[in-house]
Amino acid sequence: MKFVRFSAGGSNSYGIVDGDTVKAISGPGYSDYSETGATHALADVTLLAPVEPNKMLAMALNYGSHLHDAPAPERPEPFLKSETSLAGTGDTIRIPSDSEKVDAEAELVVVIGKTATNVSLGDAMDHVFGYSCGNDVSARDWQAGDTSWWRAKSSDTFSPIGPWIVTGIDPTNLDIEGRINGVAAQNCNTSEMIHDIPKTISFISKYMTLEPGDCIFTGTSGTAGQIKPGDTVEVEISQIGTLSNICG
Amino acid sequence: MKFVRFSAGGSNSYGIVDGDTVKAISGPGYSDYSETGATHALADVTLLAPVEPNKMLAMALNYGSHLHDAPAPERPEPFLKSETSLAGTGDTIRIPSDSEKVDAEAELVVVIGKTATNVSLGDAMDHVFGYSCGNDVSARDWQAGDTSWWRAKSSDTFSPIGPWIVTGIDPTNLDIEGRINGVAAQNCNTSEMIHDIPKTISFISKYMTLEPGDCIFTGTSGTAGQIKPGDTVEVEISQIGTLSNICG
Lengths: 248, 248
Known about the structure:
- Two copies of one chain form a homodimer.
- By secondary structure, chain A is mainly beta.
- Chain A folds into two domains: 2-46, SH3 type barrels, CATH 2.30.30.370; 56-247, Fumarylacetoacetate hydrolase, domain 2, CATH 3.90.850.10.
- Helices cover 9% and strands 42% of the residues of chain A.
- The first copy, chain A, has three helices and 20 strands.
- In chain A, the strands form three sheets. In chain A, strands 1, 2, 3, 4, 5, 6, 7, 8, 11, 12, 14 and 17 form a twelve-stranded mixed β-sheet that branches.
- In chain A, β19 and β20 form a beta hairpin.
- The longest helix of chain A is centred in the last third of the chain and has 11 residues, at 197-207.
């Protein structure tokens, strides 16, 4: 199933994509929703970020190809992203004028469906609702120079997620491609993750409760590409789709 | 005015403290609330954290006495705290069994009342709703050893705020005392902040939109004291009150 959030006729709604149609539902897909009866042509709606998370985390150093000279981390290395940095497909990523270098990072995003506190490895996947494409936009000068990564990773519009959440797929063998102006900048497969999704969820939930709608960016590969105003940046993941943003 | 959130008779509500009485209101104090007509004796209700923030930030290195050998930061140095780490007065701070050293940090908390995006120094205080006492609980081994401070500063129950939000006070000359088992561990005055509240709000809002209910812990002084299961930890701020928690 493909779950979206969309704007149509001046109001916002969650929905399910069925071919070329969107069926509106009463709440997010991970809640106890029902179809409202309203339908729209997919081409007629504006897609929003498909989730309204209370909390987002992202994984540092989770692909060997992104480690460069760093050692592989012994445990998952999450960091927090602010919920105000969320953006949807089609939204403009605003490149701050006072950062020297902003990169795009193509990543698989896990959306939590059920509250997770101290869950075991074996139970972790029961708490997943679905998967989306994410771009963990990163201002490298601030990442290097600030005490924390707050504005480096969480400036407004620095967390695009979309175009939808796909449920019922196996996340362990998905191809991820990041493109800038149509040219491939990053390529990897989710099988290359150092700490996989069950380990990540189980480890985080040992310390921090994960709630329905919370999002986890699962890490990026290789060397991320720099983005500048005017660029088009895409994150395509097999079995999910393509998240596309213009930089402004 | 003193704004609270409380539990009484099995349901939760926001309210205003009037002497020994709590008057229930229809929403948080910073919204367009009205009194519901319900009143309770303050002694009969269980106080909850007085705010339900979407986002919390805290300031690193914002008191000279806490810098030790570090240089004073040229700009505010925020970091994110997760909203799931929130706790209220009277709640138990859960000390993780696998951290070697957990400290309490007594801090003034600023609660945002109006959305702030790129606000000037001169306009910053118009976006403040009020002030509360906060404890920026910190696991020092994780703070030193992890890539980010996610679990060091945002494990469940690591962000007590309370007992209420006080509005209409001058935040520039408030005494803060942190106590562990009744013994003073930290003493400072908010006049000692390196980067004051207008500068902090203006700087954060240049990059990250602040929303009503968002909380900013404004930094801690001196050397914070270690807390262990069984300890009582208090944060008292003049003109506000005392936040009290037991560690478990």
